[in-house]
Write a structure and sequence with these properties.
Number of domains: 3
Structural class: alpha/beta
Largest sheet: 6 strands, mixed
Strand order of the largest sheet: 4-3-2-1-13-14
Number of strands: 25
Shape: elongated
Helix content: 25-40%
Distance between the termini: 64 Å
CATH topology of the largest domain: Purple Acid Phosphatase, chain A, domain 2
């Protein structure tokens, strides 16, 4: 992570060297600054690591070099340079004093407007177009003006003036900083292909941020302990111990953090050196809380309350057995009560929300006296904090593909804004060696476990591409039977594109199962009507005899199709549990989260009512089925092709 302080010291050193040689100092100080130069230095000063933007497309601006492009893209994402001429950034144009202050004020992401009468004392106020930004700059001590009571807004910015402006950006504001992750879903290891940072790289970023900003919190917004084998095999312990080593300060319980059962979540809370928070999860029997509602910490002499909120749709997004006896109370009502009780006890309230962006918006609109909502659950990418009804909202995408760096800005003790950005992976970004060494130990243990025999099969389970994308197979039947058994659904369906290898007869290891089901698809339960099911079957066989990743394997259902007919009119004789499909009746259907979200063109599946999001991986469901020594289904005519 590039450190603004380092840049500042380097700048001071440069000016000192020039001064020793005399005359060149004046030339260096009086040189005009280009727009590209100012944006570059502003990004450095803000601590934005632009390395992850290297090599991105620069075609949007004809005058932006490959070297400058990452800085320009970062500034655009943070809405600092909005309003540029289409196709032309003006990288080599002289930046005016007014433009520089406009960019700087936009970078601060202030919470309120400032009185434009502050400009009245300046003779050339009529030449100012960015009146609000310059008024803010004056109020916040960033803009001093000249002795002759002029602002000179159209005058080109000089290098010495830029140095002064960026020095004030540092010195005029105190900062409380939040490094925040969300929805890792067990992605605790670095994955270059997917752009997933992993906890070792997150540790490096957190450590560098603490060096740069002394008053830093590291926080997680939930759905962390479950999702990949490297988290699941230790039931979340690997993630918890790595987070301890990183020095997380708190996290909120996400819906999938209940996937090992709430008792295991309580054990993980005891295992961590930081609290797992949730203010809205209670026991049905007596109303007692499962976890702590909040914690209070002090920095810069200010007391900050961190309140945790867990999504109430957890009741359908984890298996019912995992939360038996628990009640999830409406987030808006709970946070209203929490704020009422805390607002006179603390200086600032921050919500750690695993409720999703839409609920965060509801909270911001309904509740006053909140400063910041750090979000999760909806996997929303918010490049900089959004201001909604006086409350800032932000969220850092998913799976560690981004990490949030968010700053509370204080001017003379008053909170004046909250700014920040997302940082992402790039090849040269280091991994913290201590965290990596810890994770490597868990990887070795898991890999050893993956090679252990979980059971055996006496027939070859067909998962070959040319089979699972065109016809019924015994492996397709096995996985859908297992899905139906897990959920109690009327029907189960899963796409052949999610099956990637055979499982040979004999002893079976978890590695064999993962080779056949390599994706992190999970089982969901939805409600569909008969017409939607028929549409699904028609879509499934529309390309036959061509291979099709969307070809559906089924359980609890049989049908025939005639490839000689036009696509969309091929399916007939559909039966559910031996009875004809009723187009008006509603059925419960187990499928995977990819197709349930409309993947492979099944857009209407996303319209079905979500009844349960089990969080169980397809490969786990299959391994459990084999481990329990259940009968291997044959190819039994669930899908028949009319000759």
């Amino acid at each position: 992570m590039k450190k603004a302080l380092s840049m500042f010291l380097a700048t001071v050193l440069t000016f000192s060297v020039v001064f020793q040689f005399g005359a060149p100092l004046a030339d260096a100080q009086n040189a005009d600054v280009t727009r590209g130069e100012f944006i570059t230095e502003l990004m450095h000063t803000m601590g934005v690591d632009v390395a992850s933007y290297q090599g991105n497309d620069t075609d949007s601006f004809s005058d932006v070099t490959e070297e400058l492009a990452p800085y320009v893209e970062a500034a655009e994402r943070l809405e600092i340079t909005t309003g540029m001429r289409e196709g032309f950034f003006g990288a080599n144009e002289k930046v005016t004093r007014e433009q520089a202050y406009v960019f700087l004020i936009r970078a601060l992401n202030l919470s309120k407007t400032y009185d434009q009468k502050l400009l009245d004392t300046y003779k050339d106020k009529g030449a100012v177009w960015g009146k609000q930004e310059l008024a803010a700059a004056i109020q916040l001590g960033l803009l001093k003006g000249f002795e002759d009571k002029t602002l000179r807004p159209k005058q080109p910015l000089k290098k010495d003036q830029m140095k002064q402006i960026l020095e004030r950006y540092h010195s005029n504001f105190e900062r409380i900083t939040f490094v925040h992750s969300n929805d890792l879903h067990g992605r605790i290891l670095h994955n270059e292909q997917n752009g997933e940072l992993g906890l070792a790289k997150i540790a490096h970023i957190a450590n560098e941020t603490r060096k740069q900003y002394a008053n830093t919190f590291v926080l997680d917004m939930g759905d962390t302990f479950h999702g990949t084998n490297y988290a699941n095999f230790s039931q979340g312990e690997s993630a918890a111990q790595a987070m301890n080593l990183i020095g997380y300060d708190a996290m909120v319980a996400g819906n999938h953090d209940f996937n090992f059962g709430y008792k295991r979540l309580v054990e993980l809370d005891q295992m961590t050196d930081f609290p797992i928070l949730s203010a809205n999860v209670v026991f049905e029997a007596d109303g007692e809380l499962l976890l702590y509602t909040h914690m209070v910490q002090e920095k810069l002499g200010k007391k900050i309350a961190f309140v945790g909120l867990t999504a109430i749709d957890t009741v359908v997004k984890t298996h019912p057995n995992n939360i038996e006896g628990l009640v999830f109370i409406d987030e808006v009502e709970v946070i209203k009560e929490m704020v009422a009780g805390l607002k006179n006890e603390v200086d600032h309230i921050v919500v750690l929300s695993h409720s999703g962006y839409d609920v965060d918006l509801e909270i911001a609109k309904a509740v006053t006296d909140l400063d910041l909502i750090l979000g999760g659950h909806s996997h929303t990418t918010i490049e900089k904090p959004e201001l909604v009804n006086g409350t800032y909202i932000t969220q850092a995408w998913e799976h560690g593909k981004a990490l949030g760096i968010t700053h509370m800005l204080f001017y003379k003790g008053e909170l004046v804004g909250i700014n920040g950005h997302l940082t992402r992976d790039y090849k040269e970004l280091p991994a913290d060696p201590k965290v990596k060494a810890l994770l490597d130990q868990y990887v070795a243990e898991v890999d050893k476990e993956l090679n252990k025999v979980i059971g055996s099969v006496n027939v070859k389970l067909d998962g070959a591409r040319e089979l699972v994308r065109t016809q019924e197979t015994n492996l397709g039947n096995l996985v859908t039977d297992a899905m139906r058994e897990l959920t109690g659904a009327d029907i189960a369906m899963t796409n052949g594109g999610g099956i990637r290898a055979d499982i040979e007869p004999g002893e079976v290891t978890m590695n064999h199962v993962i080779s056949a089901f390599p994706f992190t698809n999970t089982v969901v339960l939805v409600e569909l009507n008969g017409q939607q099911i028929l549409s699904t079957l028609e879509h499934s066989v529309r390309l036959y005899p061509e291979q099709n990743g969307g070809f559906m394997h089924v359980s609890g259902l049989t049908f025939e199709f005639d490839p000689s007919k036009a696509a969309g009119d091929r399916v007939s004789n559909v039966k559910v549990d031996g009875k004809p499909l009723d187009l008006n009746k509603k059925y419960t259907v187990a499928t995977n989260d990819f197709t349930a979200a409309g993947g492979d063109g099944y857009s209407w599946l996303a319209e079905g009512e979500l009844l349960s999001y089990t969080g169980e991986l397809l490969n786990t469901v299959v391994s459990d089925y084999i481990q329990d020594k259940k009968a291997i289904p044959a190819v039994e005519g669930r899908i028949k092709v009319k000759e």
